[in-house]
Design goal:
The protein has 221 residues and is of the alpha/beta class. It is built from 8 helices and 9 strands.
């Protein structure tokens, strides 16, 4: 498939930045619309940055048009400040964009979720991710790919000491067969998996656990 028009939610994040770079280089992609809460510098001639206020969907919903929607959006409780605000960013904003996409005829959703996502989880973060997974799967996309990476291995702008330790341990788990499903995965690897999956046309709902993602990146687009 050529001349694919894409929308990216989370273009400034760890995975999102890598994803934009891969899509810019991909000859199949003709148009990239990056949705952002703040102004961004020019990224490439393929990329259109749309600054939006997520609290006003009536002002931007009509623009969520294309063939494929990539969602790699999210925050932490520390950055959000409260659980209510984190829920709004991680669930409400993403769901509203996904809903608008289906109303405008977007056929394919690729969503970065998290290892352990479960709407019944006692962990707040895992519960948000699980609720979002359940909600978007009820929307009328032709195909949905949900990626559940473990801890992301990449260079963040902010310091996260606890996550740094998790990454060090996670890197070692890649070499232990019965534990590698928990292994840290590089941001570029998740982005590559999304690009490969964007080329899939068969309809359905597909959940890709962390261990599977390492195999997907070796597939041909």
């Amino acid at each position: 498939m050529k001349n694919i028009q894409t929308i990216i939610l989370g273009a400034t994040g760890l995975v999102g930045q890598k994803l934009v770079g891969l899509l810019v280089e991909d000859s199949r992609i003709s148009h990239i619309q990056a949705l952002s809460r703040r102004s961004l510098p020019a990224l490439d001639s393929k990329v259109i940055v749309r600054k939006i206020n997520f609290d006003q969907p009536e002002a931007w919903a009509q623009y969520i048009q294309g063939d494929v929607l990539f969602c790699a959006f999210g925050t932490t409780l520390k950055k959000a400040g409260t659980k209510e605000r984190q829920y709004q960013i991680d669930f409400t904003y993403q769901y509203e964009v996904c809903k608008a996409a289906t109303e405008n005829g977007v056929k394919h959703l690729l969503l970065v979720s998290s290892l352990g996502a479960d709407a019944q989880s006692h962990l707040f973060y895992s519960r948000i991710k699980g609720e979002l997974e359940d909600a978007v799967q009820q929307l009328p996309f032709e195909r949905i790919d949900i990626l559940r990476p473990s801890v992301l291995d990449g260079k963040r702008q902010e310091s996260r000491p606890g996550e740094g330790l998790a990454i060090l341990v996670g890197r070692q788990l890649r070499h232990i067969p019965w534990l590698n499903k928990y292994a840290a995965i590089k941001d570029i690897e998740v982005a590559r998996a999304m690009v490969v999956l964007a080329g899939k046309n068969d309809p359905g709902r597909f959940i890709h656990e962390n261990k599977e993602l390492f195999g997907i990146i070796n597939e041909k687009k």
